[in-house]
Design brief:
Elements: E1 2-3, E2 6-18, E3 24-36, E4 38-43, E5 48-53, H1 64-73, E6 81-87, H2 97-112, H3 119-127, H4 135-138, E7 142-145, E8 150-153, E9 162-167, H5 174-179, H6 190-194, H7 201-204, H8 208-213, H9 218-229, E10 234-237, E11 244-248, E12 264-269
Parallel strand pairs: 5-6
Antiparallel strand pairs: 1-4, 2-3, 3-7, 4-6, 7-8, 9-11, 9-12, 10-11
The structure holds 4-diphosphocytidyl-2-C-methyl-D-erythritol and adenosine-5'-triphosphate.
Length: 270
């Protein structure tokens, strides 16, 4: 079975409190971004995991796809599998790429072994692998709160909007990013702000990681300014960075922009 784990963007992200377990409470809207890895999962004589594409730090058995398989194997009688992950989505980017691999592995194994788990059950497994993972089980725009793994439906859709995402070849660790932010009450209600025209989001929709990280990584501010300069109606850091995106509604494609040769860029329509 071949699946294509896609990335996500965060529209607004507010870190609202510190939880007793040391994690933060947050509020954000997640939307799928069609920048994808490729993951093949097949029944096999013996277990194996092949990794190609962008190198992933860590031992293969700690890869989130493999951890997804081990999580299910602890509860179900699964035969060996061979997995092949071709990594395309940049790592440490705030795009949830590793989390998507884990969630798509759970979904693929559910189908392959006919486990018949409903989405809510798959989300429970996904939460055990990372805060971002559960989003990718249903993979549609949602308002996320608590640890970012509890969802409420939202009517917003960015379908058809031109978008550019720029990864400035900078790995920002999620834990490091959270450590730099002091939780606070959001200045604006996120869902109310997002219901207004996109041109107003610049003044009312923000990502708390941006204020905390930009002084340490000025390139984040420079990319955001360049996206506005190129005509974006809204531009922001995604998640804990370092990817920065711009939205260009009404355009068939985002404008071309010169960037350094070691940056990774996704341009397309959501
Ligand atoms: C920044 C976001 O991408 C926004 O969507 C996510 O919150 C990150 O989710 P993730 O990469 O799946 O993160 P996890 O693997 O669960 O956690 C990595 C580290 O981030 C911090 N963390 C994560 C989520 C959260 N709600 N509070 C936290 O404080 C913790 O220090 C944790 O050890
Ligand atoms: N399939 C995978 N893809 C990416 N990272 C993985 C994967 N499996 C395990 N990891 C580990 O997770 C770390 C990346 O986590 P990190 O949270 O920084 O990035 P991410 O999952 O790509 O996206 P985000 O920045 O949105 O959380 C890597 O350093 C690697 O050790």
């Amino acid at each position: 079975m071949l699946v294509f784990p896609n990335a996500k963007l965060n529209l607004g992200l507010y870190i609202t409190g510190l939880r007793p377990d040391g994690f933060r409470d947050l509020e954000s809207v997640f939307v799928p971004l069609p920048w994808s890895d490729a993951l093949e999962v097949l029944p096999a004589e013996s277990d194996s995991l092949a990794l190609t594409g962008i190198p992933i730090p860590g031992e293969p058995h700690t890869n989130l796809c493999w951890r997804a398989y081990e999580l299910l194997r602890a509860d179900f009688n699964l035969s060996p599998v061979q997995m092949h992950l071709h990594k395309i989505v940049p790592i440490g980017a705030g795009l949830g790429g590793g989390s998507a691999d884990a969630a798509f592995a759970l979904r693929a194994l559910n189908e392959l072994f006919e486990l018949k788990m409903p989405p809510a059950k798959l989300e429970d497994y996904a939460r055990r692998l990372g805060s971002d993972c559960a989003f990718f089980i249903q993979n549609k725009p949602v308002f996320a709160h608590e640890k970012g793994d509890v969802f409420a439906p939202i009517s917003l859709s960015l379908a058809g909007v031109a978008c550019k995402v720029i990864y400035p070849n900078l790995h920002i660790s999620t834990a490091e990013a959270y450590a730099r932010v002091t939780p606070r009450t959001p200045r604006h209600d996120l869902r109310t702000s997002l219901a207004r025209p996109m041109e107003t989001w610049r003044d009312t929709v923000s990502n708390d990681f941006e204020d905390a990280l930009t002084p340490h990584y000025p390139v984040l501010g420079e990319l955001k300014a360049a996206l506005y300069e190129a005509g974006a109606a809204y531009a922001s850091l995604s998640g804990s960075g370092s990817a920065v995106y711009g939205l260009f509604p009404g355009k068939e494609m985002p404008p071309s922009m010169p960037v350094a040769s070691d940056y990774l860029v996704w341009s397309g329509v959501l």
